[in-house]
Amino acid sequence: MKQSLALIFWLISFPLFSQEIESLKLADFQKILQTPNEKVLVVNFWATWCAPCIKELPLLEKLHQQNAGVQVLLVSMDYDLDPDIEKVVRFQNRKKLQAKILFLTENDPNAWIDKIDKHWSGALPATLVINTKTKKRELVQGELAEGQLEELIKKVNN
Fold it and tell me: How far apart are CA 56 and CA 133, in angstroms?
């Protein structure tokens, strides 16, 4: 009986919704941003310690679930302060995030932020919307407002 209860508890607590978080270096991440894609990329730079980042995650999750023409990538910037990816995994599970999460394993963000976008100050959250076919890009620094993502997607598609 105890084994059955333990198995039931494990099955209930197992995060069926989560995906594996991929660790990658800047060069690999840049390849993702440059690879032609049929979908518009919505790349959100966030951290588990950033309150505005956490506040806007539902907008990104909604976009991920409701817009098949968009690929949402949530890029964790936690590595610089805490290189433990398990902290991000626990956060993903707790918040039930389904969008793909990338764990950027780079130190000293000030040394590489301009390689992502020359207009990015490094502030979090930041969202980069890219149409890889047309090379159009839009960057938003700061928390996203309701409807803003849809407008940015329209801009890069025109």
Answer: 27
Instruction: Spell out the residues 6+ positions from residue 80 whose beta carbon is closer than 8 angstroms to its own.
Output: 106, 107, 108, 109
Which range (7-11, 22-26, 146-150, 152-156) has the least confidence?
7-11
Query: 20-157 adopts what CATH topology?
Result: Glutaredoxin (3.40.30)
* Bond prior to 125 in cis (omega within 30° of 0): yes
CA–CA separation, 121 vs 145, rounded Å?
19
Sorted by where each begins, the domain ranges of the chain are 20-157
- The Cα-based distances of 75 to 5, 72, 83, 101 in angstroms read 37, 10, 14, 6
Least confident of 13-17, 86-90, 106-110, 140-144: 13-17
Burial of residue 115 (number of CB atoms within 10 Å: 0-12, 13-18, 19+)? middle
Quote the pTM value.
0.86
Mean pLDDT of 29-49: 95
| Residue 42 dihedral angles phi and psi, to the nearest 5° | -115, 105
